[in-house]
Amino acid sequence: MKVGILTFTYGDNFGQRLQNYALQCRLASMGCDVFTLRQTGRKKNKSYELKQFIKGCMGKSDYIMKMKRHRKFADFDRQYISYYPERIGEGCIPEGLNEEFDYFVCGSDQIWSPFSDDVNDTLFLTFAPREKRISYAASIAADSIPEENQDKYKNRLCGFERISLREDRLSDWIERNTGVKPEIHIDPVLLFDSGFWSSISRKPGGLRDKKYILSYFLGSNSRLKDMVSEYGLEDYEIIDLMNDKAWYYIRPDEFVYLVRNAEAVITDSYHGVLFSVLFHKAFAAADRQDELSDMSSRLAYILSLLGLEDRWCSRLQGDKLNGSIDYEAVDRILAEQREKSDRYLRECLKRIN
Question: Quick one: which of 62, 90, 252, 319 has the most CB atoms within 10 Å?
Fold first, then answer.
C-alpha cells in the first residue's frame, strides 16, 4: 500500500519536521510504503529573489544564518524523510499521481490555518478522489474561519468522509457545514514514546557537560530574564535556541537531545511542550500572540487533555516550575490516545483490502 503525506515541507521548524517524520514512521509500521510530497514552495517575485541574492553576496548575517540552518535541516531530511521525487502545489499536480498512490494523508501541523499564506488546496487533498483522502490531526490553529473564507473551507472539507483534527476549537462549525463530526487525535510526535525519540536524538557539537535550562521561544522572549529570576534558575546555564547564534544551527534530532537532557524547559512552542511532556520534564508554557491570531490556543487543548493546565507561565509562581508532575497519569492518557489514533488510521487504510 503506497501512501503520500501532504504537510508543510519548506521552512526550517523543528516541530514541523519531527511531526512529519513521526507520521511517516507510524504509517510505515502499519505496512505502508510512505512518501512525503514536497510543496513547490512560496511564490517569490523577481525583486525578492534579487534582494536575497544581493544579501548573500554582501554577507548579510541574517541571510547566512538562515542558509546555515537550512543546510542542517537538509542533512536531517536526507537521513530521515522519504520524499517523493516530484513536487506538488496549486496548479502543479504530478502526472499519474493518483494512479501511483493508494491513499493520501494530510497532517499534522497548521496545514489548514485560514491565516497562513502557505495553505493551499493540495493540503486538503482536492486533487485526489474522495475515497483516497485521509486527514490526521490537521490543525486549523484558529478560533474561527474568517467570513470571506468560509465557503472555500466548507467546499474543501466536504471532500472528506472522515475529518481528523488536532484541536477541537472548530468542531461544531465543521459539523454544521459539512455534516461530518470531526474526530480529535494527538499530534504525530505523541504517537511514539520517549524511547523512540531517544533512539534518534543526537548530541549537538559544543554542548558542555553542565546542567542547563532550555529556552525555546518562537515569539518574543522578552520575559525570559524575569522568568529565570522568578523560578530561581540563575545558577543554570540558559540555552536559548532561537536567539543565541551558538544554538541556532542545530538539526531537529539535536533539538530532541537538548529537550531530553534539559533540567527544565521554558517555551511558547507547541512541540517544545510536547517533547517536554514525552521526556517528563519540568516545563513552563508561555502564551504567544502573532499578528493575526492567538497561537497559544493550540496548546490549550493538549494541556487540558493531559491535565497539565497549571503549567502555563501565568499560573506558575516561584519554585513551582520544579513542582511534581504526575507523569504516570499523563502516560496513561497518552497510551489511550495512541490506541485511538492507531485505530482511526487503520480503519481509514483498510478500505483497500
Answer: 252
Please give the span between the terminal C-alpha atoms of the chain, in angstroms, as a whole number: 9
Report pLDDT for 51: 58
31-68 pLDDT, tens per residue?
999 999 999 976 554 555 565 556 566 566 677 888 99
Tell me what the mean pLDDT of segment 238-266 comes to. 95
- β-strands 183-184, 282-285 pairing: unpaired
